[in-house]
Amino acid sequence: MTQTPTRSDFDQYMVPNYAPQQTIPVRGEGSRLWDQQGKEYIDFAGGIAVNALGHCHPVLVDALKTQADKLWHLANIYTNEPALELARNLVERTFADKVYLCSSGGEANEAALKLARRWAHDQHGEHKSRIVSFGKSFHGRTLFTVSVGGQPKYSQGFGPVPGGIEHGEFNDLDSVRHLIDDDTCAVMVEPMQGEGGIIPADPAFLEGLRELCDAHDALLIFDEVQTGVGRTGSLFAYMQYGVTPDILTSAKALGGGFPVGAMLTTDRIAPALTLGTHGSTYGGNALASAVALAALQHIDTPEVLEGVARKHELFREHLETINRKYQVFKEIRGMGLLIGAEMRPEYEGRAKEILPLAIEEGLMALIAGPNVLRMAPSLVIPEADIAEGMARLERAIARLVGEQ
C-alpha cells in the first residue's frame, strides 16, 4: 500500500545536511504553491533563483513533454539536437564562442576553474596556477569550488583543501592588487554576491578586475549562476556592467527548474579542454537542453527583461513601506529580482526567524546568511502576487516584532 510521505520521513531517511520547513509542497502554478493539506503559498523564493518562469510554465512544460517523446539521454560519445541548439543560442546571445554543458552551477564552476588552470598551464607553465576569489563568495559545493568560495564554514572538516587560492575583499580593488601577480591564472567573482548577502559589485571594482587580469594575463571568471538568465534585468549581469569576462558560468534559471548548467568561454581559451580532459555524464542531456533552450528563448525578450526592472521597483516600494512601519531593515539592496533586506542591529541574526513565520502566513522566502532576508521570485510574477505576498510578509514581520 502506498504511504503518503511526511516531513518526519526526511529525518528518518535523508542525510541531515538540510533542515527543510515542515510544509511539503505538492503542486505549483505560476508563483503559487499548494501543500499536502491544500494550503496555498506565494513563492518569493523561486527555488533559490531557479524557477525563473514560476512553476509549470506552459512553455517549459511543452518543451519537456515534446522532448520526452523523442530522446532523453545519450552518452557523450554522441551529441544531440537540443544540446547543439542550446549551445548555439548561448553563443549568439553572449560574448562567448564556445559552451560546455553540465548539470549544475557547482559543475559549471568546477569546469571554469579547471579550464583556467589548464589554459594557464599550457600557455605559461605549472607556476601560473594561483586563483583569487573573495570573502563571503559562494561558488558551489565541490571541494574545489567550496575552497575558492570565501566562506570557510563550508570547507571545514573536509581538508586538506586545494591550495593556491587567495581571497580578497569584495568591492575593494586594493585588496586584489596585493594578491594578484604573474603567477595568478584567474580571478573569480560574482557580479552580485548571493549567499554573501545580496551585494552588487561596484562598476569600478569589476572594471578594475578586468584591467588587473589583462595586466597579468590572468582570466576573469564571472560566476553568474545566480545572477544570470534574466535575474538582474539583462540576460546576464555582465551586460549591465559593460565588463566582459573570459569565462562565465550559468545554471539555476537556465533550466527554469530542470537541472542544467553551462560554462561559456572564448575561442582563445576553449582549446585548453582537449579531448578527455573534462566531462559530465549528464552534460548536454537532451531533456535538460530542450527545457533550457525554451527557458532561454522565452526569458531573453524585452517583455520579460523590462518587466524585471518594473517588478524590482514594486518589491522595493513594498519593503520600504513595511520598514517605515516596523523599522526592521537596515538596508534594502540588490538588482532586478534578486533582492536582499539586511536586518537592523537590534534584529541582528534574526532573518532566519522570518521564514517559518512567513510560511505560516502563506509566503515562501529565503535568507542570505543569518542577517539578510532574500527574495528571488519568478521573473514573470504577477503584480497582484507581489502585493499579496508582501501583505503576508508584513504580517510575519509584525509577529517577529511582537515577539521582541
Automatic annotation (TrEMBL):
Pyridoxal 5'-phosphate binds at residues 138, 223-226, 281. One of its GO terms (biological process) is L-arginine biosynthetic process. N(2)-acetyl-L-ornithine binds at residues 141, 280. GO terms for molecular function: identical protein binding; N2-acetyl-L-ornithine:2-oxoglutarate 5-aminotransferase activity; pyridoxal phosphate binding. Pathway: Amino-acid biosynthesis; L-arginine biosynthesis; N(2)-acetyl-L-ornithine from L-glutamate: step 4/4. The modification N6-(pyridoxal phosphate)lysine is found at residue 252. It is found in: Cytoplasm. The keyword Protein transport does not apply. It is an enzyme of class 2 (transferase). Keywords: Amino-acid biosynthesis, Aminotransferase, Arginine biosynthesis, Cytoplasm, Pyridoxal phosphate, Transferase. Binds 1 pyridoxal phosphate per subunit. InterPro entries: Ac/SucOrn_transaminase_bac, AcOrn/SuccOrn_fam, Aminotrans_3, Aminotrans_3_PPA_site, Class-III_PLP-dep_AT, PyrdxlP-dep_Trfase, PyrdxlP-dep_Trfase_major, PyrdxlP-dep_Trfase_small. Its EC number is 2.6.1.11. Pfam families: Aminotran_3 (PF00202). SUPFAM superfamilies: PLP-dependent transferases. GO terms for cellular component: cytoplasm. Its cofactor is pyridoxal 5'-phosphate. Homodimer. May also have succinyldiaminopimelate aminotransferase activity, thus carrying out the corresponding step in lysine biosynthesis. NCBIfam families: arg_catab_astC, argD, PRK01278.1, PRK05093.1, PRK12381.1. This is Acetylornithine aminotransferase. It comes from Halomonas halmophila. The gene is argD.
